[in-house]
Specification:
Rossmann fold; 17% strand
Length: 396
């Protein structure tokens, strides 16, 4: 686990350069910028010049936060209408249970997912709450590697909610994930309402809320953390890069990084978690390969200014590729155990060697929220236009 002090001469070593973005013509859409790695590092140098103390950083973060909401079409935020949640099909596993869930983030617009709970009973504020968004894998939240991290976190003492990307599987097909230009807004609002859902359980301690996801789920992790201070601990996995913002409408298809008021990147947005605990998990086999020498030092700078230099860590796996395998889950388990007061002993031996041997996967069809017994409600909106209309109506 990297805990090295921020190198004071880091930014001085990087040649000065303007902030203009170079959008590669090889990309399928100019909406998804990918800039040279060196340019990403130089951009961070320029961003660092805009503040020198806590107050100036907070002012910059406030400006970026407002820009994300404005650029994504979430200003003003929609009304928080009743969730009307339905929880069904409880399955008892080894130390935890799994249930299927759907609720309305907007009237007629549904969030679908699975709720993982410790089998032991809890009283008021007994458990932490953890959100687990997923990346652009085919199986999404039903993938075994998603199931197992939710199961482990539940055994450790969390109530965990894994929820679908908008339009990603047969449960969540009210709009097209790849084609809908407003999917970032829908997904960000769904994440906020997923947090509302978690906090609706009296057993969940609002002082112990975490979020972790990989790739596109990593984007959701640091975006939600930047926008919603109810998140207390964050662990974005293989996503927080200074030179690549994601290749999907749900990540970089809206004007949130480069605006008239500011320019930023995902590394800085992730650092907006400060002073709350933040773990950046990075690998050598994707766009997070430079994290130890570029993105992490920038985050350390922000955390030092915010008076919490020990609250940011980087776990770098130089031989690993993109994903959320066991090698990446282990540091997240340890980080969450430390900062959310979870019981690592529930998934480890006396020497704290972590094992997931308790886990048995559940078939995808058993995890779907909508089925013959629980069909999608008739008032569900359908199609991009209808979904956007539901959002705009809730904003008035």
């Amino acid at each position: 686990m990297r805990r090295s002090l921020f190198p004071q001469n880091f930014f001085a070593l990087i040649p000065l350069c303007g902030l203009a973005l170079l959008i590669l013509s090889s990309r399928t859409s100019s909406a998804f910028p990918k800039i040279p790695e060196e340019q990403g590092a130089r951009n961070l140098e320029e961003y660092a010049k805009t503040y020198s103390n806590r107050e100036e950083w907070q002012a910059r973060a406030k400006k970026i936060r407002a820009g994300i909401l404005e650029g994504s079409g979430l200003n003003p935020l929609p009304r928080r209408t009743p969730l009307e949640s339905v929880i069904h099909s409880r399955k008892e596993m080894d130390g935890y249970s799994v249930e299927n869930v759907y609720f309305e983030s907007l009237p007629g617009f549904f969030v679908t997912g699975n709720l993982y709970r410790p089998l032991r009973k809890g009283s008021l504020n007994s458990f932490a709450g953890v959100l687990c968004p997923h990346g652009h894998s085919k199986e999404g939240r039903t993938a075994e590697y998603t199931q197992v991290r939710c199961a482990a976190l539940a055994r450790m003492g969390s109530i965990v909610f894994a929820y679908d990307m908008v339009g990603w599987n047969q449960d969540n097909r009210q709009t097209d994930h790849r084609k809908d230009k407003n999917v970032f807004a829908f997904q960000t609002w769904n994440s906020m309402r997923a947090l509302d859902f978690l906090l609706s359980f009296r057993e969940v301690d609002p002082r112990r809320i975490g979020v972790t996801g990989e790739s596109g789920g990593g984007t959701q992790t640091f975006m939600l953390t930047a926008l919603d201070d109810r998140v207390r601990v964050a662990a974005p996995v293989v996503m927080a890069s200074a030179h690549f913002y994601g290749g999907c409408n749900c990540e970089s298809g809206v004007p949130i990084h480069n605006r008239k008021e500011y320019q930023t990147n995902n590394a800085e947005i992730a650092a907006m978690a400060a002073p709350r605990p933040l773990l950046l998990v990075s690998v050598g086999g994707d766009w997070t390969k430079n994290t130890p020498k570029v993105e992490f030092p920038y985050a350390q700078r922000v955390y030092s200014i915010m008076g919490a230099p020990g609250n940011v860590q980087n776990h770098h796996l130089p031989e690993d590729k993109h994903g959320y395998e066991f090698s990446k889950r282990q540091p997240v388990y340890r980080f969450f155990a430390q900062h959310l007061k979870l019981r690592l002993s529930r998934i480890s031996d006396d020497e704290e060697k972590i094992s997931e041997d308790f886990f048995k996967p559940i078939k995808a069809e058993e995890l779907f929220a909508f089925n013959d017994s629980y069909p999608r409600p008739n008032h569900a909106v359908q199609g991009a236009s209808a979904c956007l209309a539901a959002l705009r109506k809730a904003q008035k």
